[in-house]
Amino acid sequence: MKYLLPLLTLFILMSCSSDDDGDNNQGETQETLLLKKVFKDGELIREYEYYADNKLKSQVGPLVNDQIFELFYEYVSDTLIVSYIKVETSSVIQTLKSYSVNNTTARTDYYSSENVLIRFDKYTFNNNICGPIIYEHFNSNGAIITSRYFSFIDENCSVNTIYEGYGYKNSTSINDNKKSVFESITSSFTRQEVMHNAVEVRVMDYNDQIVNSRSYNTEYEYNSDDYPIKETSVFLDGSSLIYTFEYY
User: Fold this and answer.
1) What is the pTM of this model?
2) Which fold is adopted by the domain 7-17+33-247?
């Protein structure tokens, strides 16, 4: 998870409600626990707030050069709008708009503070329960910058990933069967019906050698609802990180 937390804003695009279905199913359905705070090595790095319907409203924490940003979420018709607000100046420096294009595609557009399109991302789906099978980044002219191709390998959505345009070639992530700490903040646009936690990640370079600084093993402590409350990741280069989580 050394490089996973930035994906909270750059890849996953948080927005999900914990109670989207509204169905009256037989039996008792457990509600999603809403993530409140994330600590890294004991230091608070992220706080989350939600609307009354449990959709994500905002998150606050360091993003760029340790500057504090608030990400504010609005739900307008079928579009998720995320404003990146620099807390020190209260200025909006970037806006994201995410929406479904059709049954197999979703898109996120990135706009500057002057409302100029600066790049966009595209998600491609094949109706699996784990999420997109292709995730692509494009510049404002539509030229592809990077791409990732996902192959899910078990019922826990463990995944093999192929990278293009990155400094590494592929990776394998093996997941547990517990509930994901990010369940309440993952966007519905990524269509992830099943989410779990990575316990082993191996990243390979273009010489098919393991990238030790990005490969790790993780142990979790869970609460009574099977959500992680502590995560300890030990990287193959010998470094380690400890994250702890609080829920509402």
Assistant:
1) 0.85
2) Porin (2.40.160)
Residue 236 to residues 63, 104, 202, 216, 221, Cα–Cα distance (Å) = 26, 37, 9, 6, 21
> Can you tell me the distance from the alpha carbon of 93 to that of 69, in angstroms, rounded to the nearest whole number?
10
- Encoded tokens for 94: 């970037």
For the chain, strand residue ranges (E) read 35-40, 43-50, 56-64, 67-76, 79-86, 91-102, 105-112, 117-124, 134-139, 144-152, 159-164, 170-175, 198-204, 216-222, 228-235, 240-247
The DSSP code for 168 is: S
Per the structure block, which two tokens stand in for 85? 């607000």
Tens digit of pLDDT for each residue in 154-192? 999 999 999 999 999 999 999 999 999 999 998 888 888
